[in-house]
Design a protein that fits this description.
- The protein has 827 residues and is an alpha/beta fold.
- Helix content is 23%, strand content 37%.
- The strands form nine sheets. Strands 5, 6, 8, 9, 33, 34, 36, 38, 39, 41, 43 and 45 form a twelve-stranded mixed beta sheet that branches. Strands 4-3-7-10-35-37-40-42-44-46 form a ten-stranded mixed beta sheet. Strands 13, 14, 15, 16, 17, 18, 29 and 30 form an eight-stranded antiparallel beta sheet that branches.
- Helix 17 runs antiparallel to helix 18.
Length: 827
Amino acid sequence: MATTSPLGIDLDHYKWGFHDPEKYVFKARKGLDREIVEMISHMKNEPEWMRAIRLHSLEHFFKRPTPKWGADLDQIDFNDIYYYLKPTDGKGRTWDDVPADIKRTFDRLGIPEAEKKFLAGVGAQYESESVYHNLKEEWEKLGVIFLDTDSALREHPDIVQEYFGTVVPPEDNKLAALNTAVWSGGSFVYVPAGVKVDIPLQAYFRINAEKAGQFERTMIICEPGSYVHYVEGCLPPGELVSKGDGWVNIESICPGDTVMDSNGNRAVVKSVRVRPFKGIMLTIRPISRGNAFQLTPEHPVMAVKRCDVAVKRRPRKNWRIEVDTQRLIAGAARFIPAGQLEVGDFLVFPISKLTRENPRYTPTVMRLLGYYLAEGSAYVHNRLKQPVVSFTFNESERGHIDEVKALIEKFTGKNSMEIRQASRHGIEVRVYSRELMEVCVTECGKGASEKQLSSAIMALPPAVQAHLLETYFKGDGSVYARRKHLMMRATTVSPQLAWQLQELLARQGHYATIGVRKGGKDTIRGREITRRDQYILYYSPDKQQSEVRRGDGCFFVPVKEISQTPYEGPVFNFELMTTPNAYVTRGFAVHNCTAPIYTTDSLHSAVVEIIVKEGARCRYTTIQNWSTNTYNLVTKRAVAYRDATMEWVDGNLGSKITMKYPSVYMVEPGAKAEILSVAFAGKGQHQDPGGKVIHAAPHTQSSVVSKSIAKDGGRAGYRGLVKVYSGAKGSRCAVRCDALILDERSRSDTYPYMEIDEQDISITHEATVSKVSDEQLFYLMSRGIRADEAMNMIVRGFIEPIVKELPLEYAVELNRLIALEMEGSVG
């Protein structure tokens, strides 16, 4: 088996792993019986005919055995599930109508923003009930209906009664009977004749509570000649995240890495997520320009709104509203979506609590390292081939020179030499010492732009770090008075060092701002040079910045400026193993924008019924990424009439077990069906997807393409049926199943069933099971492509027939998720 790289994103850890406190209007008891079903119907105030259907379905559910084919479902305890959870009293027509805690969940997923920019309509279901449904006015005027199914039952009972259970009757299978008995929520779409909805309708389904079930019922009716596309359904690269001892780009964060959380403690990364984003990217700049950071508008930032802690007296001219410092410090900061922040609001700058004693770092060592950071260099003498550590001072800095010489003698036992640099009015203090060179380079690096402090230095107690800070500012700093207060300033061309020094100063009780002086071309004495960007730290040892407040374990730093820029590309996020599930970017606390993970299992058992009438076309796209404790057992079926087209596009990445076989019954001549499916099974997952195409009329056409990938002991495959009835002359069907297995422990299964009762037809079936061969990798690597990139290219080519059929945003996400999962599969 190939070794797993730390860059691999583990789909065992679900990508959207947050859950909210349970605040329900009503929560039924566990278990399933007649009383529960009647209670659901009563609470929804349903007509008697729906109540009768539910009770009939319940009886059928109890009579039917649990399926023994496919995945193992014996562990499901149907009496240990909550079948009805009502999160709110009503459904929102605007996002402002949705309760704040539930809206915050969907804000984290970027759904309101997506609705504004890309979608014709949006539905959102939380637990058992729809909490939001909206359709853009332009489609409403054309007669399109897009409601949650409960609302459709109230507002359009005749249409619902005409079609409900006609495509998937409760007698079909045990799980269809279960859904029909306890269904709640889902989407209802009705597209009038000739209307073509050319941008997608989208729905989002979320299970929040532990041991909960979700049983939505979706119905889509496409009248003749209509078209609809129904879709089920952070920080940019380059943003810096604190690891407690340094800063790294967010896209380089991997599961198992250690970062600093919003309380200043060490935390381990549980999972990583990347998703496509197209929209506005915000830049939040605090009073420290060097700490400006970018993020999407829905990403939560730990902050305090200025208006919540403002004093009541009249503000001075051109001054911001004054705040009550005690209320600011005592008040609880909260996570606020970045798009709701305003200039003047306070961000939270956590102070690192990471401390580790180490007797090796004596005051002598720390003071030497401070001087080295400011004025030192380390190299090997070209001629003598001896290691050299050199410190350069102005000739007026005699006190510093003498201290460095004394520190060198104490540490190395050697006398250093002074070399005068008359033209520069400088003095170089030089010593030949391998021991000192190794300490300086190991703990501080070499080269002005590359210097940064080691993990060990960053974790030392503040009292020990104070020695380094003192000599650093002696060597590279300047002191001046400003408004009766002492100000300290130091400049470095190493951005990493600037942010590290800011953290060390915070541990001393001082908030330092970082200014940025942009570099570029310059001319000195007729010689053209290129200046690097300079990072300038400012702080006052006897007074905090007047706008910054010191809190308990943090500083409250005001926002100076907020700007917006268009952005299209990947955005990144990650989840921590511990609470708070929040990390630090550019010094400030932000939350992970992420769906619930529990140790017990949840059940998702939906039914989708679609009627595609003469000449109409429907495409139904699903990218499911349920958490890996969820049984995802779904019945999806469509009926296609004369010259109609039904397309299922199905992506399955999450869940513990998935059993899902989208079906198309072609019941009149000229009907067409297309099923595209991709499944990824990682550790502990069993993906058992497939498809069914039923040719019940002449000259019908179908195509089934299934791609499955298995890794780390996962099991994935294809289970499908092609049925051609007698009389369905001239029908054609092509089935292709491809499986890719990435290690010896994984498994792929193919179960193709064909029942052909007609002679005049064309049926093809192809199936391949393969591994990524050494020859494929060698061929690409011999052309300069790294092994991990070569693997990604092969996998992208493998899933390309599915990905190209997805909407752009989903194609990017699916491709990126699977490609990242493949990293680490070579070794």
